[in-house]
Amino acid sequence: MTINSRRFFQAFKYTVYVLLAMNVYWFFDEESSAATLQFANGIDFADLIEAFSATIDTAAWVVLLLMFELETYVLDDQQFTKAVTWSLHGLRALCYAFIVYAFYGYIANLTFLYETTALPDVTDICALLPDQWSWAVTLDDYAELNAANCASFSDASVYYQFRDMMAVVDAQGLRDIRYLAWVDVINAAVWLLVVMVLEIDVRLQERDRYEGLALRSSTIAKFVLYSLLLLAAIYWGLKGDFIDFWDAFLWLVAFVFIELNVFEWRQEEQQALEAASRNEN
After folding, report:
1. For strand 160-162 and strand 141-144, is the pairing parallel, antiparallel, or unpaired?
2. To pair with 107 at 20 to 30 A between CA atoms, which of 38, 55, 187, 226?
3. In terms of domains, do 191 and 246 share one?
């Protein structure tokens, strides 16, 4: 790789990282709108994770990504003093705590979506007017019902209300929203497994043991896990949830960079060992 191409590669990599950081804002904006309906009486501290699970999750992952970038690419081996190592591990542990917390939030959101009730004696959505109702367009996306748009959302004869919300949806829409929430839960669980495997990779690489069976097992596990994440991204793309699709795509690209960092780190370690062996001979 020439100097120019390496600079281009690094610029592209850090552009992806910046775009991921920007997604924190987009998720916050999306979830803030939904939270005004879901928590009409205000958001308690205990409700934060349910209201802003994607925002908290993405922010923690961005910090964790930077920690991996520092450890696998930016910092040289001699810079890993005890203070630096403990700082990196401490920040990563904090990120993992928030990521697991966000995973709980995704499960709480999924549970909430099963707490719906059919509206009695409502066979025409326009009959809900003039009260201030909203239509659940998709997960965390609601549109205010009015006389101009109410007939365009659905011609179903049964409608479902979300718990403690002035928001409704028909059976097909509810099914689609629940599927998206399931994908959120599965995607979050798979990412936890990915980062667990990557943590093992980094620890083994630090001890010069990332080879043989360990390397093959890691490669197979990550192929399966990344394939599942790609399927989740494709599903979000097909269902028209662009923010989730875009975020999933960027994270896959970002962790390809981390995998390349580990691969390059491993090559450098092997070259150093070979050079040391030649010098001894």
Report:
1. unpaired
2. 226
3. yes
